[in-house]
Task: structure prediction
Amino acid sequence: MPPLALLVPIGLPILGSLVAALLGRAGSGAARAAASVGLWSAAVAIVALWLPVRSTQELTLGQLGFGSGLDLRLDAMSLVFSLIVLVPAATLLSVQPRSWQESTVAALGVGAAVLAVEAGGVLLTAVAGCTAATLAVIQLDVEDVSAPRPSWALLLAAWLAVAWAGVVLQVQGGTAVYSAVPVSAMTLPVFALLGFAAIFSAGLFPWRGWASRLWARPSLRAAGMTVATLQPLGLYLLVRAYELGDGRYPNPNLNLLLAAWGVLVAFGAAARAQAATTRREYMAEVLPGLAGFALMSVAVGSALGLVAGLILTATVAVIAICLPLLPERAGPQPLLVAAAAAGLPPSLAFGGRLLGLGAAFEHGGAMGVIALAGVATWLLAAAAAARSVGLAAGPGRPAAETFPRVAAILGGLAVAAGPALGLAYYAGSTAASDVMSPPSGALGNGIASIVTVSTVIPVIALLGPLLVVGAIALAFARPVPSVGRSAARPPLFKLHGAILAARIAGEVRAMAVPSQYRSLFNPRALESAAAGGTPILWLASLVAIAFAVTR
Amino acid sequence: MTEVAAFAAWLGGAILVLADARRGLALGLAVMAAGLAGLAFAAGQDPTAGALLAGGVVGAVLRARSGPEGWGLMQPGSTPRIILTVLTALLALYVGASVATGDGAPLRFAVVVAIVLTAGRMLQGSERAAALTAASGLALALAAGATLAPSASFSAAIVAAVIAAGASILPAAEPRGA
Amino acid sequence: MSQVLTALATHARALLVYPGLPTVAVFGVAVEAAWSRIAGGSQILPSARPTRPTIVQVAVALLAVLASVQVAAPFNPIPPAERNVIIAAAAVGFTAWAELALDPELVGRPGLLLIIQSCWLLSVLGPAIEPQSLRPQVLGNVLVPALIPVKVASGFLYLLCLPALLRLWPVTPPADRRRRPRFNTTRALVWFPYCALFTTLFFPPPADDVTGGLRFFGLTIAVAAVCLIASSVLARRGAERARGLYTRIVAPYSVLVLALTVVTLILMR
Amino acid sequence: MEPELAVALPAAGAAFAAALRPRPRLALGLGALLGAGGMAAVVLSAPGAASNLLGVTLSLSAPSRSVLIVAAASLAFVVILAPQNAERSTLLRWGLAGLAGMAAIAVAPTPDISVLVLLVLVVLQATGPGRRPFVRRLRAPALAVALIGLGLLFARMPGPPSLARLGAVGLVAGLVAAIGALPYIHEFDPEEMTASSPIPWMAFVGPVFAVVVLTRARELLPSATGAFGAMLIGLGLLNIVWGCIASWRTELGAAAWRYSFIADWGLALCGFGLGVYEGQAGALLILYAILLGRLPLYLWSRQPLREKIQKDRPINLLVAAALAGSAPFAGFPARILLLRGATALYWPLALVLAATLLLWVPSSLRLGRTVGMPTGRQLLGIVIALGASAALGLYPQPFLSLAGL
Result:
């Protein structure tokens, strides 16, 4: 395969978007089809590029002009993240109706996200990631300009932070290419920038951040695409940070800090989820919760944790497809998706959490305490999921956007995927070996069990029979009569802190400069002072500059 | 000789600042140009001196033909302008003769004073003719300043002379329309 | 491939024979019957008439069985290395919420239940932090003097939480306002995992022989008995007292256990 | 003879366009032909190669040449896709006059002549028809000429180092006054025709003039480089903060655009002040973005601003993204380069810069809306401007190579 072929997975979504734009006048359906074909073919192309070689492929096309070359690299990690971005986006684009503008912008954004993942250096990742973020914001505004969306400034800040990290690496280490950065250049400030960027670009906050607020939009077309595109990119930064630091972060306390943050994110989401008053409000907290666990797992610092993080990120991608397709009514489909997200055994989320928490316990010390909090948070998320079954629907949205069967099939697959955890582990560990030493554990009996330092998880042997027995038993089970199901349910506990925080935030937002001081910032006044009849300000500033320089 | 020329430059500039009508402005420009040309001549740059003088004289002649009638020297309310001319002279003297070292203090004094006074005239006036004359003076002063540079002062003087003359050709009344 | 098939057979046997479903059912029916008797229930034993199980019962049974095969019961066909305390804790923990999801009328005071479940989780996983192991029998075998205080405190916390987790406290769920409670099938399904997990975590693992079996089941029955006695005492004191106990005593005590765990961690470093 | 032609042909084009005002089509054709010839001369000229056809040595440095080419492209772009209600021949006349002046500034053998040419442009612009009186239009640019003149003078005076620093003060203050950035902002009338407003100083003549002055200043003031850089950075930061906030908060849309130019100039000044390769490259990218992006977009926003049309369509959001310096547009790599320069120099400066970079977002969203609902020629123009900005943003190397970087 010629190295130039690495451009294909990036080029195809862009090509798809261009065709979508050209076909826009012919109808939104044709445009959507073109865009989705672009994304699916990119997904196929990236797998086709990887499979014959199964090792890192690189392409260097010279300097771009901002300190970075057009260096592309396809390794297992890029492959995993590309698929995590491409597959949900392609699915959503394929099934949900949307205008040609939305299809065009969405496909372009996905192309940029794939470029961010395939980029060989930090700076190119920053440019591509910022492009993806910008296009996501535009896509959201195209759909509904008045609906909640991530703050553009915050996303820009995040990707500027990545860019800054890249330039610091260049200044300190001479390069920002992932595979060439000297370990000594990966300092605490660089990591702080990357960590900040990861958290803000993925919306991983313990409070109700943009990743939650997006789901309050009247339509969930763009919300699903945004989460599917941006959230993995944030986590990707933390994964690549291991590569920059030769398999570790510059300080072990950073692992603790990030892991604790991840659990806090998951706890915040679970706490809000258990207090949700509608099904939609519950849905809003599902992905931040899962992403919080993914963050915690990635931050543990071991290859096992990283693999768990990748599995959970993949789960986020699957659930990100399901949620926008779910109707806001009670039924087996929401139950299945909620079970898949909550990590009901033997789901993929169950396996991912099990591995992530196991990695944290095996790390011991403070990480063990964080893991303990993680397990408690998991059960809280499960309680919230259980409570959500009886919640009222929510604001409602066009039925044409919902595809309950697709959601149910994917949710069912996510639940039933537990026995395939070995396969996921294999893929994850192959990817993880690109950024750190291979996992100390291994696969046993092919992909039948996962061997870690302290335990062996017989994924096929244990979860396989459980799945079969469970499926048969549930098929024969008698449903419980749904008496009073839709009655309002009180929260399991009240979020006093959140209420207070919301009140303070509201007060801060409502703050205004008192009217008597508003003239302090008056561009017109300055203009008339500067350019008015007497040029006193000019002369005064000249004297001031002269004084400052010559003193 | 150089001191006299420097004084003439200051005097011309001062007249330019203190005048509000065509004759006064023309006189100021001519005197200033003569002073600056004298300094260039004293510095051994005869072509430059010629160009400066020519530009100043042509500009002054053209100015004398357009703009408000009369001399308009030291109209009521001119006290701040008088103070400006004096202060500028003192400041330029300090910079040119005391702060800066080496030969050529009169030239330095003259150029500083000419630039500051012409610029001051453009900043504080509201008459189009005065501003255009000040622009002519400023061009000549800049060209005179170029004589301090190691090369190419003649070409600067030619350009300045063209500007000085050209600015005086421009209409002294505001055109109508927006 | 044959290894995979063998492992599949082994785990299927564990899930469907021992210590899986039958063990869970027999143990649970026995203990639940005892509780019905103590509580003066209207129905001591489950109905002999065969009926299709409800979806809640199926879900709870599956989770309970998953947890049960993780315990250190003698002759457990699952190799000790393949047992995992997180699987056990999560599976048992999920049972309560499966009930809330599928039949919310069965769960009373879910908020308080959540707090107690968190305390219970601390007692299960707290002792696993310093040994850095997730194998239940390894945790049961920990006899390092420095870790004993945490283990004892956690064991006591586990026992304190058990009546509430098994819904043996006098807080009745919305659907069950009867003065004389009936046989509770879903609870019967979780007696064994809860009690056997305690035996596994806080006592050294038994040998795979008759003595070991007697010891393991003896201890598990003893745990159930302690729980029954504590619950009957609690039932006589009334719902308010029970709530008070859990909010004012158990929760602060669990904070103490957490502090003890952290201090032990620091001292062990 | 390319430098001479680079000045003479656009000047002749402007003169013909002025003379043939009653016949706009002929004026446009002839002006365009001569302008194109002038630009061909610029393109064909070898950077740094001297020409002595008129007895004066003229040459074009690589950075000046690149900015001239981009400015010419911007002019061509604006004239071809002229905004509604704008007469092409008038745009071309003013543009060619400016271009001739810019070329003269760039090819001049000494900075004195560059400043004199600037004075010519100042006087010519002030004498043109406009809403503001001549003297008020002349004031700020004339101050710039005087300050730069004084700066050059001080730089050449023998004496203590403080004289060189005073020279630096004069040059920096003069440059800032010439472009109309803070604290020497020009008086602005939102209703005024663009050609006679302060916008050409910021968005058309300013970039070339800044490149020339700053290149020459470093040669003239080797001992005051530190003070020079510090002033540029300080004033740059001031302009960034004030420009962004004022652009966001000011009432009038046209004024908001003006402040957005000031903010961009702040960034460019910071880049030039850094004094390292990356800073220069970043500043040049900002200047290119002003010429190819912000200026045409401003011109196309004039009519919707008058009609008070504000929209939030995809094109408006893309415009906002381009103005905010978000990737993939030109502002982002420029910011990367500036951050790199600042990090190499003094990292807290990079921190301050990074924090200020976010200030662009609110004002850009506002400015994006002012483009209204573009259709036809205007829409095509905006799409091309966005495309050019994206090309600059994704692959700036050819543009930087053009400037010898």
